[in-house]
Design a protein that fits this description.
The structure holds two protein chains of two kinds. Chain A is α+β, with helices and mostly antiparallel strands. Chain A has three helices and five strands. By secondary structure, chain B is an all-beta fold. In chain B, strand 5 and strand 6 form a beta hairpin. The chains are: A alpha+beta, B mainly beta.
Chain lengths: 98, 371
């Protein structure tokens, strides 16, 4: 299972308290994790990436294993530690504004 | 028992303020959607328990919420606002072509008769419609595809469609306003549109009386006289007596004719309210005195309304969607400020009192009346 940590506002929308756990079919990539996340929590569609283009929203960041994966291609595989569930995939609201 | 429900959108959530018909004791609920910008909250005239809210942030984009129990509970509906076809470009601030990009919903306008029909005015300027209570949205692309669309430019706040007025008797006729393109009218339920800006003069554009390019801040109409429109433009308060075919200035003796909000008394179609703001760069009341101005003559002659409003050291703004009226026998007037106050007058503006003083900056105020 893939562990995904959401920022507080998105936890509220999804009505979850802590991390969410997702089953991802095939390659574990940013794109496939977001597909699985939006499939299970459709209320998050459009909040992390554009609904039409799937482009990451400008003030959302993707971290894992102390690395910033925000600018990686969505089709790139995530680190093994994320795939194995040892580390979470972090979706973060960027520090910007007030 | 009569009463009112005031729907307030703020920079950090929505609030619902309720009172009985005396309007002197208020219950405050909220923040709903805490931490999110709520540009607008609007109730359905056809089913007052149905309320729509536009919820957004720069981080997580746009959501639409719907309540079917008068704002007690909310459910997310569709947030997929996709421009019809290939969106093309409009002009950017520097005059270069800029792709049409959805940013947020500024204004929601539920149908006068059908609780499932609701319109959404968005940035970049376009009009969307849902016929199923917000479960799906479709663009009425005839507006954005108007011959002049490629030449529209944003105002300082973005290129937003912020005003939607429905004709009370003719479902084919609607008016919208866009900053900074101007006012537009449809007579075929949104299929085709034409600019209705004749008579507007805007010194900030190369051709002051151009067909489009005017920074219209707000339109208002009384339902008993839908051919008479009032407009708060960037500068100038304007009036049309022919459904927008032509406009004339009615700023008269206002201390400044810059402003954002404008509204009409519920029972007196020639009684109009504005909140003059000092200038386009000083968005606060002249002399630090918060004054609503009322004209009982449909413009030209205005009286300041100050009883209960701060008359010194007040430097708040009142935004375009932040004034509304109720329809009780003694018409109530409401407005919210960027300082977080919501003021109410239960006597058509003669006296005012704050309902709340310390909300986040108020973006919008709407009122539902229970008679």
């Amino acid at each position: 299972m893939i562990r995904v940590a959401l920022p507080a506002h998105l936890r509220t929308l999804a009505q979850v308290d802590g991390e969410v756990q997702l089953s991802v079919v095939g390659d574990v990539t940013v794109g496939s994790v977001l597909d699985a996340l939006e499939s299970r929590y459709p209320m998050l569609c459009g909040t992390i990436r554009d609904r039409n283009t799937h482009q990451r929203r400008a003030f959302v960041r993707f971290f894992a294993c102390e690395e910033d994966l925000s600018h990686d291609e969505p089709s790139n595989s995530l680190p093994d530690a994320v795939t194995s569930g040892a580390e979470p995939f972090l979706i973060v609201g960027a520090m910007a504004g007030g | 028992m009569s009463g009112v429900r005031v729907l307030v959108g703020t920079r950090k959530g929505a609030f619902v303020l309720t009172a009985d018909g005396r309007r002197d004791r208020w219950d405050v609920s909220g923040p709903h959607f805490a931490g999110w910008e709520v540009y607008h909250v609007a109730g359905s005239p056809a089913d007052p328990t149905r309320i729509f809210a536009s919820q957004s942030t720069g981080w997580f984009g746009q959501l639409i919420q719907r309540s079917d129990d008068g704002g007690e509970t909310w459910n997310q509906v569709d947030n997929h606002f996709e421009y019809d076809g290939v969106p093309g470009t409009h002009q950017w601030y520097d005059g270069t072509p800029h792709p049409w990009e959805f940013a947020r919903v500024w204004h929601l306008e539920p149908s006068l008769t059908d609780p499932d029909l609701v319109y959404a005015g968005v940035e970049d300027a376009a009009l969307f419609r849902s016929t199923d209570g917000g479960q799906q949205w479709q663009e009425l692309a005839g507006l954005r595809n108007h011959d002049t669309g490629h030449a529209w430019q944003p105002g300082a706040g973005g290129m937003c469609l912020h005003t939607i007025l429905q004709h009370p008797d003719d479902p084919g006729r609607m008016f919208v306003a866009i900053s900074a393109a101007g006012a537009f009218r449809t007579d075929d339920a949104g299929e085709t549109w034409r600019p209705i800006n004749r008579g507007l003069q805007s010194e900030g554009i190369p051709d002051p009386d151009a067909e489009v390019g005017h920074c219209v801040h707000r339109l208002a109409m009384h339902p008993s006289r839908p051919d008479v429109l009032f407009m708060q433009k960037h500068w100038d308060v304007m009036r049309s007596d022919n459904a927008g075919e032509s406009w004339s200035e009615v700023s008269g003796d206002l201390p400044t004719d810059f402003g954002f909000a404008i509204d009409v008394h519920a029972h007196e179609p020639d009684t109009v309210y504005v909140v003059p703001i000092k200038s386009d760069s000083e968005h606060f009341p002249p002399e630090g005195r918060l004054r609503v101005y009322r004209s009982r003559a449909g413009g030209h002659e205005w009286e300041p309304l100050t009883n209960g409003l701060p008359q010194k050291d007040c430097y708040v703004n009142v935004l375009r969607d932040a004034m509304a009226v109720d329809s009780l026998d003694s018409c109530g007037i409401y407005f919210g400020t960027t300082g977080g106050q919501v003021y109410a007058s239960a006597d058509a503006g003669d006296s005012w009192a704050p309902i709340v003083r310390d909300l986040p900056a108020v973006l919008s105020v709407e009122v539902q009346t229970r008679t």
